[in-house]
Design a protein that fits this description.
Elements lengths: L1 H4 L9 H4 L10 H16 L9 E2 L11 H18 L16 E3 L3 H11 L4 E3 L6 E3 L10 E3 L5 H17 L3 H5 L26 E2 L1
Parallel strand pairs: 1-6, 2-5
Antiparallel strand pairs: 3-4
Length: 205
């Protein structure tokens, strides 16, 4: 990245800014798009990782619908279930556990949500009639909040979310430059166990 595109090791790859005007990024715009593509290709070459995706269609939700809480609740649930059933790639051991590292956005609310799910987490029965309480079992500790500028892991998650968004609602420049299809680069590392309703395993709410 540094030798080919002039990207410094300490430079944050903020996916949304990379295709916006006046982004403040010194790398030429056509190279920024290629950087996102190369970043996705690097992730796709890591068979030991797994990407879980959740999409919320805000257009059909009531005004008081809490997008933040519902999206994270779905992510926590899928993460915990995937750990419990050992659906992540690689070797597994008895009682595998996981931790959550995320961008520092409304950490107090996120921590309260996880703590609540550790005690009360209603999961609907198949068919939508009734529910059972299945508290979070395999996620330990509170969410670990990070400044994305200092975390390549958070930047990688940001890239995956951005590419998924562009698959559904591509910006004009992104669509014109064929960037709309970049999400498909990640196909080999998608957590298809998160949802059986589509080939990418995307959870739609």
């Amino acid at each position: 990245m540094r030798d080919v595109y002039g990207l410094n090791l300490r430079d944050e790859i903020h996916s949304a800014k990379y295709v916006d005007r006046g982004s403040g990024v010194s790398v030429p715009k056509h190279n920024r798009l290629l950087i996102l593509k190369r970043f996705a290709e690097c992730l796709a070459d890591m068979p030991f990782i797994s990407v879980t995706n959740v999409i919320i269609n805000k257009a059909d939700k009531p005004d008081k619908y809490d997008v933040f809480s519902n999206a994270w609740r779905a992510l926590f649930q899928r993460f915990d279930t995937t750990l419990f059933y050992e659906n992540f790639p690689g070797n597994h051991y008895e009682k595998d556990n996981g931790m959550v590292f995320c961008d520092n956005t409304d950490g107090k609310k996120l921590t309260a949500l996880m703590r609540k799910m550790a005690v009360y987490n209603p999961v609907p029965f198949e068919g939508g009639v009734g529910f059972r309480n299945i508290p979070i079992r395999n996620i330990i500790e509170d969410p670990n909040l990070r400044n994305s500028a200092h975390s390549h892991f958070v930047q990688a998650a940001d890239l995956c979310a951005f590419l998924l968004y562009q698959l559904h609602c591509p910006k004009t420049y992104y669509k014109r430059k064929t960037g709309k299809g970049y999400f498909r680069i990640l196909e080999s590392i998608l957590n298809t166990s998160a949802s059986k309703k589509n080939s990418y395993g995307i959870v739609y709410l």
